[in-house]
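Quick check before the chapter quiz. The format below is the same one you will see on the exam, so make sure you can read both the input and the output lines.
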Amino acid sequence: MSAEGPATDTTRGIALMVGGILCMVGLDVSAKWLLQDYGMAQLVLLRCGFSAGFIGCYVIALGRTALLKTSLPGWHLLRSCLMAGSMYAFFYALGRIPLAQVLTFAFAAPLVVTALSQPVLREPVGPWRWAAVLAGFGGVVVLLDPGGGLGEPAALVALAGAILYAVISLTSRKLRMTESTEALSLYLFVVPTTIAIVWLALGPADAWRSPDAFAWALFAVCGLCGGVAFVLMNAAFRVAPAAILVPFEYTGLIWAAAAGFLIWGEVPTARTWVGAAIIAASGLFILYRETRAARPQVSLG
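Here is the expected output.
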């Protein structure tokens, strides 16, 4: 292999990861914008529709439809229920608290994954990683502000959404040996879409508002960003090591803070930055320990 090979792959991987994170922030920005004028059920329905449509076209274009077959429909139903709770929770929070704060709660999900991996998946978690988890949850407490903001419902809902998303990640680890990435991604939208349809059908007459051209564009951006992010981030992990890529996920905090300020005049508080820094540092330390634990041990005897 030439010397340029790994470097080129690493560069590609970083570019793909940053592109995927930008798409995720684009999803959140467009959703927050739409929630100013449209209901949550309509947002969920169209977000899921555009995302599922993109992923479905992607699967068909690559001739990978056979990978959508599954013998574990119950697991996919559970994951879709978790996705519904997580999606509705994050959208609820997006309409009520600053964008950067919501995204910071989302980045707490890896801490929950680490904390639950031992009791749920029987994966060993050493004392150093437990210390990092506890420190990260300290960052969450800083965000919640026990002295004044702990009673803010939207912040607690965002944290609940992060926990549900973490459980989805745990199920992905459990099923990754038998289920394809395409199936694990596409079937997530079944329950959120069903809830949105029932909500719109049985809810008030104004639950659905006819979007204008600009709103349709935003709905498309919201859904397509979710689908494109899935493709880009999965492609990134295929061409570069996770230890190199994961730190770039936290650039999303910068993009979210910038978007929140430029569009809505949101200025992240010092408490938000401190909490985000603690959570990010804890997540990166957990990644370091996992990478070190996975490294082959050299025998000296």
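If your answer matched, good. The first helix runs from residue 4 to 34.
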